[in-house]
UniProtKB/TrEMBL annotation:
It comes from freshwater metagenome. This is Unannotated protein. Belongs to the peptidase M1 family. It holds the Pfam family Peptidase_M1_N. InterPro entries: Aminopeptidase_N-like_N, Aminopeptidase_N-like_N_sf, Peptidase_M1, Peptidase_M1_aminopeptidases, Peptidase_M1_dom, Peptidase_M4/M1_CTD_sf. Residues 28-200 form the Aminopeptidase N-like N-terminal domain. Residues 238-430 form the Peptidase M1 membrane alanine aminopeptidase domain.
Length: 443
């Protein structure tokens, strides 16, 4: 895809995120070997990427920002040429490779990682904390720490090995499969077998205690050593949340779940696959914080296993996770979802009506109205379909599309198939008109 009016000959995978992604190839597996020195903020790494080419290609374009590539191999041999520009790594192949072929890329690189700033989305990526590291990938931060095909629908399996100072704990996506101490360093190996988008990949490094939770799936809390009783206040009801969401949405889609609490305050929590990250300012039982614990957990179903194909469909993540906040309030003895819905509907009705939920534009994709109007859309559907049909719909949506990438049209079609054509038609003004529709009456 080339953007209209663009003078670059480099591809774009999604118009909401220019200069990221390449649709001529897809990643199948990332194997990342990272060696990180905290004090000088120095990363030395090798990425081994198994990929499939989707078109006949003479080059592969990867995303990589602020880090210098020192060596590239394609199936064990040097390519014709490689170069870096505009936060991209361009690998010129020795000869044209036909569509459907599989290749293995090896990229050695190093440097001082730092966040990448994009016009509409601010900064994201690898960032130093006061004593550790946080990686905030959404939507454009992945290239700050590994070469990748940075488009949300390019999902792959991952192995992430991080070697660093032994006083620090490393948490990454998936299951910790190995931890080994050698001399003055410790290596932590995590494996994520379930398909994962690049922006959901993460590494968190800090002086942490690991509090193992009971139950299935297990829930770990990785917290500062001085976190105290605030951990229980903030996260003590997560097993109840998990049980409620499994009843409403279907089985939890990954082997385990973790929350990381950084030693620093954070403005908002961070979503990533199989784990969520919170600042230490979230160690309270205030509803405005607890609702976000529910929100991030819900993303494991809506956003992480079932993932948007294009960023324009962000409501399929944020609207569903926002509605999960209201559902948790309802099942945990707080206000009902209908009360929350009508409260937020009244507020949104007083705001400017200039947001199209099905295509909000890159400048508004993380606007709070996407979250709330998306949740209201689901509540309107629930009121129309009834609880039994609505929650059966959510469970079947996740079960059928687990590990896949989806669009708004896919969801509307699923509603028509699983509920009714009338229910699907009800969604149209919520998704495709600027004016906020009225909520149906509660029965």
């Amino acid at each position: 895809m080339r953007l209209p009016g663009s003078h670059s000959d480099l591809p774009t995978g999604d118009p909401y995120l220019p200069g990221h992604g390449d649709r001529s190839w897809s990643a199948l597996h990332y194997d990342l070997e990272l060696h990180y020195d905290l004090e000088p903020n120095r990363l030395s790494a090798q990425a081994t990427i198994r990929c499939r080419v989707e078109d006949d290609v003479e080059r592969l374009v990867l995303d990589l920002a602020h880090l210098e590539v020192t060596k590239v191999l394609v199936d064990g041999k040097a390519p014709a040429k490689y170069s870096q520009r505009d936060h991209r790594l361009v690998v010129r192949l020795r000869s044209e490779v036909p569509a459907g072929s599989e290749l293995t890329l090896q990229v050695k690189y190093a440097g001082s990682p730092r966040p990448l700033v994009e016009r509409h989305h601010g900064d994201a990526g690898w960032e130093e904390l006061s004593d550790g590291v946080i990686v905030a990938g959404q939507p454009h931060g992945a290239p700050t720490w590994f070469p990748c095909n940075d488009r949300p629908d390019d999902k792959a399996a991952y192995r992430i090995a991080v070697t660093t100072h032994p006083d620090y704990t490393v948490v990454a996506n998936g299951t910790l499969t190995q931890r080994r101490r050698r001399g003055s360093t410790t290596t932590w190996v995590h494996e994520q077998d379930e398909p994962m988008s690049t922006y959901l990949a993460t590494v968190q490094i800090g002086r942490y205690d690991v509090r193992e939770g009971a139950g299935s799936p297990p829930i770990r809390c990785v917290v500062p050593t001085d976190a105290g009783d605030g951990v229980e206040a903030a996260f003590g009801r997560q097993p109840e949340m998990m049980s409620a969401f499994e009843r409403l949405f279907g089985p939890y889609p990954f082997p385990a779940y973790a929350v990381v609490v950084t030693g620093d305050d954070l403005e908002i929590p961070l979503e990533s696959q199989s784990l969520s990250t919170f600042g230490r300012n979230f160690l309270t039982d205030d509803w405005d914080h607890v609702r976000l614990v529910a929100h991030e957990l819900a993303h494991q179903w809506f956003g992480n296993t079932v993932t948007l194909r294009e960023w324009r469909d962000i409501w399929l993540h944020e609207g569903f996770a926002c509605y999960a906040e209201w559902l948790w309030a309802e099942v945990s003895g707080g206000d009902t979802a209908d009360t929350w819905a009508r409260r937020h509907h009244d507020r949104l009705a007083g705001l400017k009506q200039d947001l199209l939920l099905s295509d909000p534009g890159p400048e508004l994709m993380f606007d709070d109205r996407v979250y709330k109007r998306g949740a209201l859309t689901l509540h309107a559907l629930r009121l129309s379909a009834g609880d039994d049909a609505f929650f059966a719909l959510l469970r079947s949506w996740v079960a059928e599309h687990r590990g896949a990438s989806v669009t708004t049209a896919d969801f509307v079609g699923w509603v028509a198939e699983q509920v009714s054509a009338d229910a699907a038609a009800l969604l149209d003004p919520w998704l495709n008109e600027l004016e906020l529709p009225d909520l149906p009456s509660a029965s």
